[in-house]
Amino acid sequence: MKASPVAVIKSLFTISDEQAMWRVQTHDDASAFAQLVKRWESPVRRLCTRITGDEHKAQDLTQEAFAKLFTHRKDYRPDGKFSTYLWRIALNLCYDELRRMRRRGESSLEGELGEMVSVLDTHPSPAPGPDKAALQQERGEIVRQALLRLPEPYRCVVVLRHYEDLKFREIAEVLDIPEGTVKSRMAEALTQLGKLLEPSLIEGSPKRPTHRLTRISSRPEERERLFV
Amino acid sequence: MNHPSREEWMDYLYKEAPPEMRATLTAHLASCPDCKTAVSGWQRTMKSLGIWRVETRRALETGLGSVVKWGIAAVFLVGVGIGFGRLAPPTSAGAASLRAAILPELKQELKREFRGDLEAALLAQRTAFTNEFRQQLQSAVNEASAKVLVASGEATQRLLLDFAATYSDDAEATFALIRKIEQQHRADYADLLKKVETVAVVAEARLQRTQSQIGQLAAFTSPDFQ
To answer: How many CB atoms lie within 10 A of CB A90?
Structure first.
């Protein structure tokens, strides 16, 4: 990928994330930290939203992630990539939040399951309606629900690869697992998502007469199988 | 038929496969209906995932905010322009000539100021980068020298230990040799002593015999003498 001349010139006059973090670490540089927040606030919030499925919680988690980043600034190792460090912090906070939600018996899916099923049943093949924006929102909601039904390890890989555009190698680094495992999880996640989305969203897929939403097993090994 | 693995297909779908592998997979896809079905299914799912968009609220807010700000600025500028135009005296030939005289000088002045600002900004940026680079270099050098010191200390200690071990082995061998030589000396001495004693005994016996023979000779008288 070739960077544009403007981006190259801009990069000459801006410090990298690692340099900014180094300044924060050694000089408690507030302006450098503000730069990091400005650059990474949106990606972190998007990640938290897609992992937890809740925009308001994601907002809190984002703030918490940056607070934690500053509190643990001395733990950052300058030889590592800043983004990897930040993704790890954000993901750990998301996992903690999901655990808390499970303990409280709270879930982004609770109370919406019936609605979701009815949406899927009433719109097996949605045609463009009069209100396109509303339909788009509805379809986005179906995708959100399907993604939330995936077990966390799969959801995490999908969010990082598909939405945040990290390479498989980078995801392996963030999650501290082999690259092959990341790819096999991605394949399994796409397969499961396909089954969930097929009847309602995916065009050109074989239609099923009825559709039942089932929670997928959270143990990856149960579903790890080779494609032959 | 050997099918590519799911991991390879993921590389293919997310454009991370190297060109040769991509060509192989594309060729396989053209000839294998099973793989084609699976890959098409994944592609459809990938497409549908794009439907869920997370609103970039901040961008929206800042976008709206900037539109409002620019709107206010535009209105203000237009107002100032109209007011200035109304209050200003009508233009004359003198004003036009004055403007023509002032304009190049003003342009030069602005250019100079702009260049000065730009140079100052570049200089400040360069100084900042130099300082930062120097600090990073210093810390890297410190770290490297600390590592070298630790490594050399460890190597010296290892050499000393090796030397001590070798030296103790050598000393033990020398002592064993000395002990052996000493034992040999003692044995030789004992043997020599024994031999000397034997010689002495034999010499003693011979001496006594000689003495007795001398005595006999002295006592002997020839019949011719008598």
So the answer is: 26
pLDDT cut 90: percent of chain B above it: 35
Among all chains, which residue has been given the structure tokens 């733990």?
A75
Largest CA distance in chain B: 194
Q: Give the other-Cβ count within 10 Å of A174's Cβ.
A: 22
Please state the separation of Cα A137 from the chain's center in Å. Answer: 18
Q: Is A224 on the interface with B (CB under 8 A)?
A: no
Distance of alpha carbon B4 from alpha carbon B39, whole angstroms: 11
CA proximity to A24, closest of A88, A79, A69:
A69
Q: For the range A51-54, what are the long-range contacts, defined as Cβ-Cβ under 8 Å and sequence gap of 24 or more?
A: A51/A91, A51/A94, A51/A98, A51/A152, A51/A155, A51/A156, A51/A159, A52/A94, A52/A97, A52/A98, A52/A101, A52/A108, A53/A108, A53/A109, A53/A144, A53/A145, A53/A147, A53/A148, A54/A108
Question: Which tens digit of pLDDT belongs to each residue from B3-14?
Answer: 999 999 999 999
Structural contact between residues A224 and A189, judged by C-beta atoms closer than 8 angstroms: no
User: In angstroms, rounded to a whole number, what is the distance separating the alpha carbons of residues B191 and B2?
Assistant: 91
Nearest CA in chain B to A194: B45
- Mutate which: B12, B13, B49, B131, vs A, most A CBs within 10 A: B49
User: Does this complex have an ipTM over 0.85?
Assistant: no
What is the enclosing helix (H) or strand (E) of A48?
A: helix A30-52
CA-CA distance, A204 to A189, in Å (whole number)?
20
Residues in contact with A179: Cβ distance below 8 Å, sequence separation at least 6, in sequence order: A168, A169, A172
- Closest residue on chain A to B13 (Cα): A187
Q: What is the pLDDT of residues A116-154, one digit of tens each?
A: 433 343 344 444 555 777 888 888 889 999 999 999 999
Cβ atoms within 10 A of the Cβ of A76, count? 17
Cα B221 to Cα B226: distance, rounded to the nearest angstrom: 8
Per DSSP, A202 falls in state -
Name the token pair of B34. Answer: 């099973």
The CA angle B60-B65-B66, to the nearest 5 degrees, is: 100
Show residues of chain A in contact with B43, CB under 8 Å: none
Query: Do A204 and B132 lie within an 8 Å CB cutoff?
Result: no
8 Å CB contact of A22 and B5: no
> Apex CA B157: angle with CA B152 and CA B159, to 5°?
95
Secondary structure of residue A129 in the 3-state scheme: coil
Q: Do A183 and B11 touch (CB under 8 A)?
A: yes
